Amino acid sequence: MKKLKYISFLVILILTVSCSNDEVKTDDPEIINKTTYDISPILTKFVGTGLSYEVNGNNVTFTTQDLPDHTSPYWPTDNTLYEEYNGTNADWRQNPGSIGAQNIVLTMTLNPAEATNHQATGLGPIGIARNGVVFFNQYAAGNEPLTGEINSFDQWLGHPAMTTYHYHIEPTWLTKTYGNDAFLGLLSDGFPVYGPVEDGKTITNSDLDSYHGHVGATTDFPNGIYHYHITGEDPYLNGNGYYGTPGNITR
Ligand SMILES: [Zn+2]
Ligand SMILES: [Zn+2]
């Protein structure tokens, strides 16, 4: 019995010591600079066919069929959204893919913060646009530049990989519908993505950090938030990896 009491005392002592180690030391500059945001105000902007989201604690889980809400030559020809290519790229050529319903589930934090170790983005979905279509990074298969793939982007600058429709660059349907400076979606680290214009000025890579974002006020976050911008030049959406910690994506 005495031994048991002694062990309990030790356990309590260890817990007390480890808890006090977790306390935020406000004189630590690393911690002072770590700002945590709350992205829950923008969730209601996610509207699309086969798109839903659910909040669990401080995480949000999006489930999407990844179906664009706009026309494309990649829809099956009997779909009402099927439309022949009518964009401006003289080198346009259709790839062999087509738009098909997916089951992609993205879980991410509602309270994003800068990661200590920034992770690279991978091939495949890295985030979700407000219409439920997934974002891909600035590389084609084999981590090749997009140079060749760009010629298969449809009139709204998306295209499928097999049956998975996605945007690597500005989704012009969304900027036409909501504005060049509008909220376009989220990367899986929970940080928002905005269009190529801010306060009437076109954003270029030189306005952004190596992850392709910066901190500033937006219409949705008047107190300021770290956010990515889609620009008209490579790397378009994300630069050198996630600014925050990416969540989980299954497909
Ligand atoms: Zn692609
Ligand atoms: Zn900005």
Describe the structure.
With 251 residues, the protein is an alpha+beta fold. The chain is built from 3 helices and 16 strands. It has one domain (38-250). A hairpin with a 4-residue loop joins strand 4 and strand 5. The protein starts with a helix and ends with a strand. Bound molecules: zinc ion (2 copies). One zinc ion (ZN) binds at residues 136, 149, 159, 161, 166, 168. The site of one zinc ion has 6 residues, from strand 8.
* Structural class label: alpha+beta
The count of strands amounts to 16
Strand order of the largest sheet: 8-9-5-4-10-11-15-14
Termini Cα gap: 54 Å
Q: What characteristics describe this protein?
A:
16 strands, four-stranded antiparallel sheet, alpha+beta, 251 residues, 3 helices, binds zinc ion
Task: Quickly describe the structure.
This protein is of the alpha+beta class and 251 residues long.
Q: Mind sketching the topology for me?
A:
Elements lengths: L1 H21 L6 H4 L18 E6 L2 E6 L39 E6 L17 E3 L4 E2 L3 E2 L3 E2 L12 E4 L2 E4 L4 H7 L4 E5 L4 E3 L2 E2 L2 E2 L10 E4 L8 E5 L18 E3 L1
The site of one zinc ion has 6 residues, from strand 8.
